[in-house]
Specification:
Blueprint: H1 7-15, E1 46-48, H2 74-78, E2 82-83, E3 93-95, E4 104-106, E5 122-124, E6 136-137, E7 148-152, E8 165-170, E9 174-179, E10 182-187, E11 213-214, E12 221-227, E13 232-237, E14 241-246, E15 262-264, E16 272-275, E17 281-284, E18 290-293, H3 295-303, H4 309-318, E19 321-322, H5 323-326, E20 328-329, E21 332-333, E22 342-346, E23 351-355, E24 359-364, E25 370-375, H6 388-396, H7 407-410, H8 413-432, H9 439-442, E26 445-450, E27 456-460, E28 464-468, E29 474-479, E30 485-491, E31 494-499, E32 503-507, E33 513-518, E34 524-530, E35 533-538, E36 543-547, H10 553-564, E37 570-583, H11 591-597, E38 607-613, H12 619-630, H13 637-649, E39 656-664, E40 667-674, E41 681-690, E42 701-709, E43 712-720, H14 728-741, E44 745-746, E45 783-789, H15 799-807, H16 811-816, H17 819-825, E46 834-836, E47 869-874, E48 890-899, E49 911-922, H18 924-937, H19 939-947, E50 954-956, E51 960-963, E52 967-975, E53 982-993, E54 1015-1018, E55 1021-1024, E56 1029-1036, E57 1045-1046, E58 1049-1050, E59 1061-1070, E60 1078-1086, E61 1115-1116, ...
Length: about 1150
């Protein structure tokens, strides 16, 4: 046979001595998990197939070790796929291992002592390694983004059913997360500790997460608010309740900690929640409902004992102020009836923004009066909505039965079918116009934030960033990324934006882009600041922390140190994958046929992927399939029959688990994973590309699956390409169309998108705003396997000649006539992909029911036998000699490639290919520990972190202010730095009542350290430029002390008492990115009567910030309107939140 080997093959073989690459003899690190033992290499018996040809190469002693180790990149951790340069060859090559076995097949029940299978020689097509056919680059630490703390590594979606994380919030010492089953808490002191690991208390998906604590089970958590003044965390839930949690409670992983108390806030889910400048809790729900829960009622309830919890709940529920009902007159509502997606407390001007998808309402935080309603374009709206009154009744009435059905639910099957058809027609019309959603859908508001200079920023589902002043006037807009915006956070002079593409961008206060990077491989749904970091939450539940100063020189030091330590966190796993393809010709198979094809070869296999062609055909079926695809439906009864019977052949009940499938007309692909591997394989996505008539009919095309295995992406694509001998160019074109257009999405019959708490922007089609339009999804995978009925034929040979070569088993000569081989050599199709050298007879075309080689088509057409059914692949290697490590994390070889000639149910023979795959990946728990060690030990990094604590020098003009009724005084803050801007925020540390002996009672803080209702401080936050002064207005405003009624309930017990009062204002000052802050304290007393003492009494420990400064003489202002106005000197006022990074400020754009 050697003399008949092709010249180009012989030349290639001479140049390649060891391919696939040899295994390393020593591991870089000890295995930290014991559950990988089933995936170590096995030894087994071998027998020859009856149609094997003689060996074509001499053999050499094997040198391949059982395992070999290396390192995984942060880039390949889970998401970004950055191209790297490879060595490109213009000629196809054949790579052959030292050992070669002909058609070897493993016999079931083989023992460990038998000789193992060896890699088969491979043929490689030209044209790979460049452009979209270039394998993605990987590295131990991603070079294109700042190093990050993986507080919770990306869990597989399948492990998160019922526990998806929806939101996060930061306190001074903890990160809180809301999940579908309650809340969980991470202590920042535990951030760099190892994960709980397998076999302990961690549930699936949390083995490598930093240690955390979980609450007892509750309704799904939708939103969280931190109340630093009361040391509480408030959570809004799907069941309409608001729950209260203590920050300093003794956390336990025994039974889960529990809430302090809760109340029924809404009939529907609590979609959004904020605490205003005056400590009131504002909550939003469906139908535009906004409710306010006065702090006085909440404070009273918190003071009650646990035995009085029922009374506490009742007090809060009866204190409710329903804002929508207040602005609804005679059935006409002034605000939108859309869901209240976001609430924002503008602490600069004491206002509250309520955000619906296409409109905003602006409210006075003190009086709770509606100030303005305006649309996303900025124009003021005059709204008339007659349905509001009816909706309000349903919201307010707690006895309404939840089982009552809407008109839509009561509509019959015909009406629902008509709606589906009309929706499909509308989708087709939109697609024809080049869009996947309505114009309004693309400009829906998804997020809002208060920036450090007092400006308001909103983000839309089309990627537009809009800047507003404090009065709701639209100033300017930007688009820095074409994907939908999902979240914001701000801190000092920086604004972070999270997108549906997984991108995070950093902007300055003017909206200019500083830096952007791919933070996650899924939508970024929340961003918060805490512990000197910006934490990002992805829709899959992964949480990463980014240093607040990044990008910075410290990033390069940390990246280098972490890369140099890669041996401490590198793991190598071995996985065997069996891929089977069969054109079943609309027939069905017996159990024996399925066992011969699949069941006999899976005893050592971890993953089984099966592709079928022509499961079902016919014009009527194809037309119905195309119609179903337009409304997101797929599959058929026959397709389900095949999956069920293949599952039986694989012992699906005990050994394998069916993970998912996709069917497009007659094409079907399905995947099974061994149950022992299931915890490391998941995140299944599916895709389908039609190549039939008009690229719309699925008689030809491809169906694909994408699976994450040990954090590496594997794609499997089952194809049926154009038929007929002379359709070579059409087949090439079909492949190119499939490769470029296969876009993976979550399967409709797997997990529900809503379970992840993703907003409407995250549901948009990725094709409509793809982050990297020039790079197909398949180009981003670590391994791609194409298989199916490619329909490439033998050319330049007659039927009789082909039969003669087959009978003589002269497959090397037949390979010279293979169209696919010729096109791959020329780099026209399957560029850079590999295939084991074929040593089995052509698999097409046979007469059904005839066994052996005599079954080839002998009818009138006498179709020339051909290798139509093939399996090709591409891994991470850019060179055949590359070894498996974190820069080349997936290295595969083929152990078995044959056709089952004994199966006669179709005119094609089934083909199977067994891959031996080594996967390098990161032990996330170990790398997080290494991350912490570097931060603690590296001198340069420690100096950089210390520099972030710097706060410029500032001063205030007084520490005592005395006000009488309706009086106003000024507080001036001076930035004494000549170089650095500073950001300030004024909060109220507490209020005290002064008795007749001029003695102050205990100071009691309000929610989020808010102001009492008699005090107005504007602006309460902002920025001060170098060497500039900002003037703050401190004003007394009358507050109603008469008994009030809310819903008929007397409220005198929460009205503020008459008499002298004193508050301590705390002025917090920090630099643009400082992790520390300095404070000034100012005592403000309201002198209720002329006889009251003029001398304030500071509380112990709250000493004035500078000397013995006199009290300021107030200015009388008998009728001052609450407008938030102030005068500025140099720096604009502004504000935000002290905790969670909501830096804020006043503005130079008329926002006051």
């Amino acid at each position: 046979m050697n003399e008949r080997l092709e010249d180009d093959d012989r030349t290639a073989l001479a140049k390649i001595s060891n391919s696939p690459p040899r295994r390393k003899t020593h591991s870089y690190s000890q295995q930290l998990r014991t559950n990988t033992a089933p995936h170590q290499r096995r030894h087994h018996n071998l027998r020859k197939h009856s149609l094997d040809e003689n060996r074509i190469l001499n053999h050499h002693p094997p040198t391949k070790n059982n395992v070999y180790y290396s390192t995984t990149p942060d880039s390949s951790d889970d998401e970004e796929f950055y191209p790297y340069s490879t060595v490109t060859s213009n000629n196809a090559i054949v790579s052959v291992g030292d050992h070669h076995l002909d058609h070897s097949q493993r016999i079931e029940g083989s023992s460990e002592g038998d000789e193992p299978q060896q890699p088969l020689p491979e043929f490689m097509g030209a044209g790979g390694g460049v452009g979209i056919f270039q394998a993605p680059s990987r590295a131990p630490v991603n070079p294109n983004r700042p190093p990050c703390l993986e507080l919770r590594p990306h869990p597989l979606r399948e492990t998160q059913v019922g526990i998806f994380l929806r939101t996060i919030a930061s306190t001074e010492r903890q990160l809180w997360a809301g999940q579908e089953s309650g809340v969980r808490v991470w202590n920042y002191s535990d951030s760099y500790k190892p994960g709980i690991g397998v076999g302990r208390r961690a549930q699936r998906g949390d083995e490598d997460a930093a240690p955390f604590y979980e609450s007892a089970s509750t309704s799904p958590t939708i939103c969280l608010v931190v109340d630093q003044g009361s040391k509480l965390v408030w959570s809004g839930h799907k069941d309409g309740k608001i729950r209260t949690w203590k920050m300093d409670v003794n956390l336990s992983d025994e039974d889960g900690f529990r809430e302090c108390f809760s109340w029924q806030a809404h009939r529907g889910p609590v979609l959004s929640m904020k605490i205003s400048s005056y400590g009131d809790i504002w909550s939003g729900s469906e139908g535009g409902v906004i409710r306010v829960w006065p702090w006085e009622a909440v404070e009273k309830s918190l003071s009650l004992s646990p035995e009085e919890r029922h009374m506490a709940t009742l007090l809060v529920e009866r204190s409710c102020i329903d804002l929508k009902s207040q602005v609804t007159v005679n059935g006409t509502c002034s605000i939108s009836s859309s869901d209240v997606k976001c609430l924002l407390s503008d602490n600069v001007r004491a206002k509250v923004w309520a955000v619906c998808s296409l409109s905003f309402s602006l409210w006075d935080a003190r009086t709770r009066e509606l100030l303005k309603v305006f649309a996303v374009e900025g124009q003021t709206e005059s709204r008339v909505e007659g349905s509001s009154a009816q909706e309000q009744v349903a919201e307010d009435e707690p006895t309404v039965k939840l089982s009552s059905k809407s008109k839509k639910e009561k509509s019959g099957f015909l009406q629902r079918s008509r709606n589906a058809i009309m929706g499909a027609a509308d989708a087709v019309r939109r697609a024809a116009k080049g869009g996947g959603a309505s114009e309004d859908g693309y400009k829906r508001t998804e997020a809002i934030v208060l920036a450090g200079d007092g400006m308001i920023w909103t983000g839309s589902s089309n990627g537009t960033l809009i800047q507003w002043d404090g009065n709701g006037n639209r100033l300017q807009d930007f688009i820095h990324h074409p994907c939908g915006v999902l979240c914001f956070c701000s801190y000092g002079s920086r604004i972070w934006v999270g997108y549906v593409s997984g991108m995070v961008q950093l902007l300055d206060l003017e909206g200019k882009l500083i830096k952007g990077w791919v933070a996650h491989n899924g939508p970024v749904i929340r961003l918060v600041v805490g512990n000197g970091m910006v934490f990002s939450l992805a829709t899959h539940g992964g949480i990463r922390g980014w240093n607040i100063s990044s990008p910075a020189p410290m990033d390069n030091i940390l990246r280098t140190e972490l890369s140099n330590a890669d041996r401490t966190y590198t793991m190598i796993e071995n996985v065997k994958v069996l891929v089977g393809t069969w054109n079943v010709g609309q027939g069905r198979a017996s159990h024996d046929a399925l066992m011969s094809w699949l069941g006999s070869g899976v005893s050592d296999v971890d993953i089984v992927v099966v592709g079928l062609q022509e499961v079902e055909m016919g014009a009527g079926f194809l037309a119905m399939s195309a119609a179903k695809e337009t409304v997101g439906l797929e599959g058929s009864a026959i397709g389900q029959w095949w999956q069920d019977h293949i599952g039986k052949a694989l012992d699906e009940e005990h050994t394998f688990e069916r993970v998912g499938s996709r069917q497009l007309a007659g094409l079907m692909i399905a995947i099974w994973v061994r149950k022992s591997l299931r915890s490391h394989a998941g995140d299944l996505d599916v895709s389908a590309v039609a190549c039939g008539l008009g690229r719309a009919i699925g008689n030809k095309g491809g169906v694909g699956l994408r699976l994450r295995v040990y954090d590496r992406l594997m794609c499997f694509v089952n194809c049926h390409l154009a038929a007929h001998l002379d359709a070579v160019n059409r087949r090439n074109s079909d492949f190119d169309h499939i490769y470029r257009n296969m876009t993976f999405t979550r399967s409709s019959n797997l997990l529900n998108n809503a379970a992840a708490g993703v907003s409407s922007a995250a549901q948009m089609l990725r094709a409509a705003n793809a982050p990297d339009e020039g790079k197909p999804d398949l180009a981003e995978a670590d391994m791609v396997v194409f298989f199916g009925d490619f329909n490439y034929r033998l050319f330049g040979i007659s039927y009789d000649e082909a039969r003669d070569f087959v009978s003589q088993r002269s497959f090397d000569w037949l390979r010279e006539k293979d169209q696919l081989r010729a096109e791959m050599k020329a780099g026209k199709v399957f560029q850079g992909m590999r295939e084991a050298l074929i040593r089995y007879p052509p698999t097409y075309k046979f007469e059904r029911g005839k066994a052996g080689l005599g079954g080839y088509d002998s009818g009138e057409k006498k179709r020339i036998p051909a290798w139509c059914d093939r399996v090709l692949y591409r891994d991470n290697r850019s060179d055949p000699a590359d070894e498996c490590d974190l820069e080349c994390p997936v290295v595969a070889s083929i152990l078995q490639y044959d056709a089952r000639m004994d199966v006669t149910e179709s005119d094609h023979k089934p083909v199977r290919c067994k891959f031996d795959i080594d996967i390098a990946h990161v032990d996330r728990s170990m790398r997080r520990q290494e991350f912490g060690k570097i931060l603690e030990s590296n001198v340069s990094i420690k100096k950089s972190l210390e520099a972030l604590r710097f706060v410029p020098e500032t001063s205030v003009n007084t520490n005592k202010i005395v006000l009488q009724n309706q009086e106003t005084s000024s507080l001036r803050i001076t930035n004494r730095s000549g170089e650095d801007m500073v950001f300030f925020q004024i909060i109220c540390e507490g209020q005290s009542n002064i008795n007749e002996n001029d003695v102050a009672s205990e100071y009691r803080p309000r929610g989020t350290l808010g102001f009492p209702r008699w005090l107005e401080v504007t602006p309460a936050a902002g920025l001060i430029n170098p060497d500039q002064v900002v003037e703050i207005s401190v004003h007394h405003e009358d507050f109603h002390t008469a008994e009030e009624f809310v819903d008929g309930f007397p409220q005198s017990w929460w009205s503020e008492d008459a008499g002298d009062k004193e508050v301590i204002l705390v002025v917090n000052v920090r630099a643009s990115c400082s992790t520390d802050m300095k404070t000034h304290r100012v005592h403000v007393r309201h002198r209720f009567s002329p006889s009251a003492s003029a001398s304030p009494t500071p509380s112990p420990g709250n000493q004035p910030s500078s000397g013995n400064q006199p009290s300021l003489e107030p200015k009388r202002n008998s009728s001052r309107k609450h407008s938030g106005g102030s005068s500025h000197h140099g720096g604009g006022g502004g504000g935000g939140s002290r905790h969670g990074g909501g830096g804020g400020g006043g503005s130079h754009h008329g926002g006051h």
